Amino acid sequence: MGRLFIEHLGGKRMYVCKKCNTYLTNKDQMISNRFTGSTGRAYLFDKVVNLEYSEMQSRNMITGDHFVRDVSCKVCKTKIGWMYEFAFEESQQYKENHVILEKKLIKEEKGFDDPLNGGDGVDTHQSVTPSESNSSTSSSGY
């Protein structure tokens, strides 16, 4: 088995696997919070990372027939939702290629601003002028 590669999208509000705290997505990726899964409330997200996907299967749901894949946390293998591959009803096609995460199987946590990507949080990078540095380089620059 090779190395496990974990992705992170950042964000002010993050969603992680409830069992192992692996990062999954952030609140900016949420499309809707008005879904229901097998454990109760569920959320529809545009982009979710650190998942494993099952084989595609046909599933008859309240909103019609869909081709879906169950999704599990990449680290602990807990099933946490599903991904819509195809919706037969035209009115349901907005769900295609999006992921449902079940609320009881994930946690919402405080995230952080990205100062390099337009965030309005605290800048963690400090600039040092040449006269303030202990470097032996000239203050005239490079």
Q: What does the model show?
A:
Residues 13-110 form the Yippee domain. It comes from Strongyloides stercoralis (Threadworm). Residues 111-142 are annotated as: Disordered. With 142 residues, this protein is mainly β. It has one domain: Beta Complex (Metal Binding Protein, Guanine Nucleotide Exchange Factor, Chain A). It has strands spanning 11-17, 23-26, 30-37, 40-45, 51-53, 57-61, 64-73, 79-87, 99-102, 106-112. Strands 3, 4, 5, 6, 7, 8 and 9 form a 7-stranded antiparallel β-sheet that branches. Strand 3 and strand 4 form a beta hairpin. The model is unreliable at 120-142 (pLDDT under 50).
Give a brief outline of the structure.
It is built from no helices and ten strands. It is an all-beta fold.
Note the main attributes of this structure.
142 residues; mainly beta; Metal Binding Protein, Guanine Nucleotide Exchange Factor, Chain A; seven-stranded antiparallel β-sheet; three-stranded antiparallel β-sheet; 0% helix; 44% strand; globular; disordered C terminus; Protein yippee-like; Yippee/Mis18/Cereblon; metal-binding
> What is the count of distinct domains?
1
What do we call the CATH topology? Metal Binding Protein, Guanine Nucleotide Exchange Factor, Chain A
In the CATH hierarchy, what is the architecture at level 2?
Answer: Beta Complex
Class per helix and strand makeup = mainly beta
Tell me about the largest β-sheet.
7 strands, antiparallel
Instruction: Look at the structure and give the CATH class.
Output: Mainly Beta
Shape: globular
Number of strands: 10
Strand and helix order: EEEEEEEEEE
Strand content: 35-45%
CATH-level-4 superfamily name: Peptide methionine sulfoxide reductase
CA-based gyration radius: 21 Å
Q: Mean of residue pLDDT?
A: 86
- Unreliable residue runs: 120-142
Terminal Cα span: 46 Å
In DSSP terms (H or I, runs of 4 or more residues), the helix count works out at 0
Helix content: under 10%
